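Q: Given only this backbone (76 positions), what sequence would you predict?
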């Protein structure tokens, strides 16, 4: 009787550990999907916008310099 009771307790212990593991993995997956990924995507978007802004600024300066050299060549 005691051996079967002990086996039953071990089964419940192993089952509860497995259920806890599955619940833990599911909780982390939800945390990752709903919290971490949006933060990472937002950071990447900010970095991309900053890069594009800087690139547009450089293009504008380059275009202005080209226009100045064209007008200087026309005047000469």
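A: Predicted residues:
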């Amino acid at each position: 009787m005691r051996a079967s009771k002990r086996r039953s307790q071990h089964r419940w212990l192993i089952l509860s550990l497995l259920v806890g593991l599955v619940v833990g993995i599911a909780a982390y997956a939800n945390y990752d999907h709903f919290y971490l990924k949006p933060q990472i995507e937002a950071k990447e978007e900010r970095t991309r916008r900053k890069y594009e802004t800087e690139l547009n600024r450089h293009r504008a300066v380059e275009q202005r310099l080209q226009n100045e050299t064209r007008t200087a060549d026309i005047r000469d």
